Amino acid sequence: MSANPALVRALLGELCPAPFPNEVFVLRRDRVQCELHGVQTRVKGWQVRGTLYLSNIRLVFVALSTDESGLLAFDFPLCYIRNDKLNQPIFGCNNLSGQVWPAVEHGGPAGELPPHDFKIYFKEGGIGTFYHLYYTLAERAKKAFDEAQGRNRNNDANPPDYVTDLVSRAFVDPHDPSTIYLAQQPVDESQRLASAPRYAANYGEDEVYEPTGLRP
């Protein structure tokens, strides 16, 4: 799903996306800001601070608090991201901009719903570690998806063994405060989802989101 994916309490008590089968978390980046257009909020957009998670199949942004519409978190499937660009302005903070198709019924590249414009601001610290890992995983996911002619194969693009090796050899930018998951995942194996999540039936129809499905 795109809006409000299932969340769990991580080993240190923070909210974390519940992992899909074969999903491996790569890193977590705190104190970032997400600007997302085209979502159902009072102002038809979302600008909020929170935590960004990167896995082998998606980016997930988890806000510090729930919007009055009920929006707390948002999925960015790596294979659905397009026109992504790293911006490093002279005045201002590093940011990642682009578009992402919603992963809901009638969404995706061949669907009827338009993509969301997004921008993620890294207001504290560098992005050398984050961007290298993100770019590598996203490009592989998009290439595999395109070669499959629309069949979702983003899990196959970045298998767990490949991700483990990639992270173990990743350049660590001393100015990048990202938390890298080298040996231990942020959640217990028992918190892994058994299958793909159920898409929110009311997405795009009203301003009330289904609960995130927070699991113990």
UniProtKB/TrEMBL annotation:
GO molecular function terms attached to this record: chromatin DNA binding; transcription coactivator activity
Signal peptide region: none
InterPro entries per the UniProt record, alphabetical: WBP2-like
Cellular component terms per the entry's GO annotation: nucleus
UniProt xrefs under CDD domains: PH-GRAM_WBP2
Protein name: PH domain-containing protein
PANTHER family for the chain: WW DOMAIN BINDING PROTEIN 2, ISOFORM E
